[in-house]
Amino acid sequence: MSLLPLADAQERVWSTIEPMGTVTIPIGESRGLVLAQQVVARENIPPFANTGMDGFAVRAADTAGASVETPVALAIAGTIAAGAVADRPLEAGEAMRIMTGAPIPEGADAVIMVELTETDGPDADTVRCKAEVAAGNHVRPAGDDLTEGTELFEPGLVITPAHIGMFATLGLQEVEVVRRPRVGVFSTGDELITGPEPLGPGQIRDSNRPQLLALVAEAGLEPVDLGWLPDDEAVIEQALRDGAAKVDALLTSGGVSMGDFDFVKTLLRKLGDMHWMQIAIKPAKPFAFGTVLGKPIFGLPGNPVSSAVSFEMIARPALLKMMGYTDTLRRSIWALADEPLLRSPDGKTHFTRVRVWESIDGAPRFRSAGGQGSHQLSGLALANGLAAIPDGDGVQAGDRVRVLLLS
Ligand code: AMP
Ligand code: MG
Q: Is 374 in the pocket of ligand 1 (CB under 6 A)?
């Protein structure tokens, strides 16, 4: 079986993935989800002209010629706190104390900030203005941020905290979004234990399931721990069927390579339209993909680094597409190798676990983060990037390489 270029594997999987349906939820739960409605400003923001500073509302003309040496005295005609309104218009020769966010009283056209004024205490009845202010000074007009009727957000927007702030400003309690997929995670393998007990002969601890559940959560999807499965064809078959009924997508780890007990692969072929791929990358060459009950199942390889790299390269973008994202890839950058990273030609792109940093000359640089075996999870744990080392003899110090950023 010839190796499939990564881009072809990605296309094969991603082309079958459809976004989930939509749901209306409280705005506070919408961060990271994709907006499925248009948002139009229903009112002016701010709704009324108000002051951007604590100070005195005045008529700008009344401050003409004011300076530190020749202050202008105005009669204090009241106080307007944020949330209150003046009980009468401001007359010529008057000033009203005003707090940030309070409405500009009728008759006033400017605010002089408190630092440019002087009074004889809180009960004073005059204020001395020590500077001239222009009309409009520190006044935030109604609609200065948004005018009523503005089409603000379109479907497809990935909701950030600032968007949620805007929803609240506009009085929206709920928004329609693409539903957050629930993603079930299984681990498979007779050698795995999940508890704290000492390892028996031949046993190792299950690291893939906790790692994958965390990757799912980090991507903003809802992880569902579906537990561990033995290398037993009947048990795995039942678990895949039951799992598919419960969640929107499934991730399995293990059982997709060439071993005698790699049942995930054989079962996906039996249960659905399985694609089994040998992808031209290292790690994470074997990969199985299929649908059971219409739910996508990503059969990730068992080696801990392979399962994470498979997730990054194929599953994560697919799951984000289900969540309505169009920009599904992690950021990648060009960076300079800070040391030689040698390899041998084997027809594959190597995703080397690296530490990337921003160097003093501005160009990001990277070095190997540790052991590069697909079982050497410590190297991945110390990495913040995957450097795509193209097929060939590797790279020399100073070579430019594409690096996928993991955080
Ligand atoms: P498999 O793909 O099932 O042949 O597994 C390949 C390698 O990954 C073997 O060395 C397994 O012991 C190891 N492995 C499989 N699943 C896990 C897991 N959940 N956690 C840690 N290692 C695993
Ligand atoms: Mg196995």
A: no
Instruction: Give the CATH number of the domain where residue 36 resides.
Output: 3.90.105.10
Task: Answer with the one of 302, 322, 342 that is the final residue of a domain.
Answer: 322
Among 186, 190, 192, the mutation site with the greatest number of ligand 1 atoms within 8 A of its Cβ is: 192
**Any bridge partners for residue 3, and if so which?**
none
Q: Which two tokens stand for residue 92?
A: 């010529």
| Type of residue numbered 186 | F
The parent domain of residue 312 ranges over 6-20+180-322
pLDDT surpasses 80 at 331? yes
Average pLDDT over residues 224-235: 97
Determine if ligand 1 sits within 6 Å of the CB of residue 253. yes
Q: CB-based contacts of 4: which residues, under 8 Å, 6+ apart?
A: 12, 277, 278, 279, 280
| Closest listed residue to residue 342, CA positions, set 395, 385, 400, 406 | 395
Q: Does residue 261 have a pLDDT over 90?
A: no
pLDDT tier at 239, thresholds 50, 70, 90? very high
The answer to whether 187 and 80 are in contact (CB under 8 A) is no
Q: Which of 263, 303, 306 for a ligand 1 pocket mutation test, highest count of atoms within 8 Å of Cβ? A: 303
Q: Which ligand 1 atom minimizes the distance to the CA of 255?
A: 3
- The pLDDT tens digits for 59-68 are 999 999 999 9
pLDDT of residue 273 exceeding 90, the answer is no
- Give the amino acid at 340: P
User: Closest Cα partner for 280 from 12, 15, 9, 13?
Assistant: 9
Average pLDDT over residues 241-246: 96
Q: Specify the CATH number for the domain of residue 290.
A: 3.40.980.10
Which residue, of 304, 322, 340, is where some domain finishes? 322
Residue 1 placed within a domain: no
- Under a CB-based contact definition with an 8 Å cutoff, are residues 400 and 390 in contact? no
- What is residue 84's predicted lDDT score, i.e. its pLDDT? 98
- Pair 81, 13 in one domain: no
Mean pLDDT of 352-365: 93
